[in-house]
Amino acid sequence: MTTPIIFDTDPGVDDAQAIAIALAHPDIELLGLTTTFGNVEVATATYNALLLSELAGQSIPVAQGAAAPMSKPKSPPPAHIHGANGLGNIDLPPVKGQPQPVSAGQFIVDTVNARPGEVTLVAVAPLGNLAAALQIDPSIVDKVKRVVVMGGSIREGGNVTPVAEANLFNDPHAGARVLTAGWPLTMVGLDATHRCVLDPAAMARIAEAQGELGKVLAGSYEFYKAFYQQALGFDGCCPHDSCALAWLMKPELFTTQRGHLNVVTEGHAEGQTIFAPEGRPFITERWSTTPLAEVCLDADGAAVVDWIVETLS
Ligand code: BDR
Ligand code: CA
């Protein structure tokens, strides 16, 4: 049985790895890529999305979306992590395709309404496009099959501030809407993704098997892994965005818990995700009033990386 998805992304080196998986996996039906600012400006994200699918020999609809956060000022893209072009500053060819004539939010709404109950939204970037879709048509809450978000952190701490993960930090207001919308939602945050390390031997196998796309994955990986060496002290990278797809296709590799999510939108802790486990009483009910969601608290990192390599080689 195939799993139809829309992949919402800001490619981005680890996004590119995940897009390659979505393109390659025989049981994933990639209905479209929706793009947002985040690792790069949104126009660059759109170019990269078109390019990656063309390099894989596929024609996938790409719809461009959010250029900035809903409320806070936009931070400059992290060129020191993903490169100024989002793909490690390697030389890239021109693209042939064009983005869709509709916005990312509208594309999500139209696609979900065309196949009610079937489509999973996999979001691995700041969440403005999903928030826009909710605003255009709130009824999609009951029509998506599931929403899988790479973002947030429960116990692991943050990666752009001591408490905030990048995707939630970049647009906490959109994140708050999406994580508390009441649709079936799984959050795959740093508690899971930091357990996974894609090492150089794994990337060499992927590069060998992925042709022209493999050259971009391997070249951008070289740039990206320098950041991990400096920040976390290991040789490799965390394949954050691939973990959202790994959870979707191999949930048994993750430890999850149900509970209530809140997102801090202002102040020192902006972008922090707060998790109140289901049924656990706190001093007031304040943290337990949002709809139930599922969060990943751990992952079998070696098995997740094996799955990534198998899918891409
Ligand atoms: C997330 O932030 C982005 O930089 C990555 O692509 C990933 O989606 C990790 O915190
Ligand atoms: Ca991303």
How would you describe this structure in keywords?
313 residues; Inosine-uridine Nucleoside N-ribohydrolase, Chain A; nine-stranded mixed sheet; 9 strands; globular; binds beta-D-ribofuranose; binds calcium ion
**Shape verdict:** globular
Q: Structural class, please?
A: alpha/beta
Helical residues, percent: 25-40%
Strand content: 15-25%
Report the strand count. 9
Task: Estimate the mean pLDDT confidence.
Answer: 98
Low-pLDDT regions: none
Q: State the separation between the terminal residues, measured CA to CA.
A: 21 Å
**Cofactors, ions and other ligands in the entry:** beta-D-ribofuranose, calcium ion
| Rg from alpha-carbon coordinates | 18 Å
What name is given to the CATH topology?
A: Inosine-uridine Nucleoside N-ribohydrolase, Chain A
Along the chain, the helix and strand elements come as: EHEHEHHEHEHHEHHHHEEEH
By CATH, the architecture is named Alpha-Beta Complex
Q: How many structural domains are formed by the residues?
A: 1
**Biggest β-sheet: strands ordered side by side in the sheet:** 3-2-1-4-5-6-9-7-8
Q: Write down the CATH class.
A: Alpha Beta
Query: What's the story with the biggest beta sheet?
Result: 9 strands, mixed
